[in-house]
Specification:
- The structure is a single chain.
- This protein starts with 5 loop residues before the first strand and ends in a 7-residue tail after the last helix.
- It contains ten helices and 14 strands.
- The protein is about 35% helix and about 25% strand.
- A hairpin with a 2-residue loop joins strand 12 and strand 13.
- With about 300 residues, the chain is of the alpha/beta class.
- Strands 6-7-8-3-9-10 form a six-stranded mixed β-sheet.
- It folds into two domains: about 220 residues, 3-Layer(aba) Sandwich (Rossmann fold), CATH 3.40.50; about 60 residues, Alpha-Beta Plaits, CATH 3.30.70.
Amino acid sequence: MSKPAIQISGLRKTYGKVVAVDGLDLEIETGEIFGLLGPNGAGKTTTIATILGVSRPTGGSVTVFGLDSVRSARKIRAMTGYVMQQIALDRYLTGRENCRLHGELFGLTGANRDQRVEEVLAWADLLDAAGRVVNTYSGGMMRRLDLAISMLHQPRLIVLDEPTLGLDIETRRKLWALIGRMKAQGVTILLTTHYLEEASRLCDRVGIMHKGKLVGLGPPEDLKRDVVGELHQLQVTLSGSIALDGLNLPVRPERENGHLVFNAAPERLWETLGILQHTLPEEIQMVSYDQPTLDDVFLKLTNSEVRA
């Protein structure tokens, strides 16, 4: 088994009396897409800053591909691509000129740089627009160029900080496809996002932080099952008002707007539905079923208010 891309052991970071990260232990596997989630102020940004060697830990340690984040910060940043939340482009240069500029900053020169620029522009489907000034690009095109630039120096790790913030769903899906291409090339991806549907769709695993601590860790589907498995919901609409007292139902319903609403784990819900179908086949008018989402996991683990 390969060594973790990122290994965090007992990480602690304080700013005076403020504890930003409090004893964080976390491993991110090589080649996975890992989502670091949490409300504002949870410690995500501080954790990323220590991974990149921008911030020195108060306690504990961080290694990236075996390199210590304090002693080898420059080497770590040289093998990392970083896409910031805000667009980081010169709007008065063309797409190709932006790539060439960043290529030089990454140490690429001459024919090697020019070849790599054309490769990433093609990868991001931007060759046709490469000669246009970036100020004429749509928001989605700018973000695709950001992603292309992050791949110029063929990094082993890419940090994506809210990469689809403010974009429409069609553009977000195009960026999801590009992120999938990154993973297919063997890149390890650390993603932060407040779009939990996005994290559920893209990430192999997620870690949820709250008040500087890791409060949830695992594949999204496992967290949905283990943390909020009881939030599966079955809704049944019956014709008229029918008494259920004589039925031995595994789950007792609540009545909401003329519907019977059952909340429980899936097995008990299916058992309940089976009894209703057997005893009241003619009276059932409609059946609907809702599964818990990563939003539900997030809200429960961070002690947030339940969704309206």
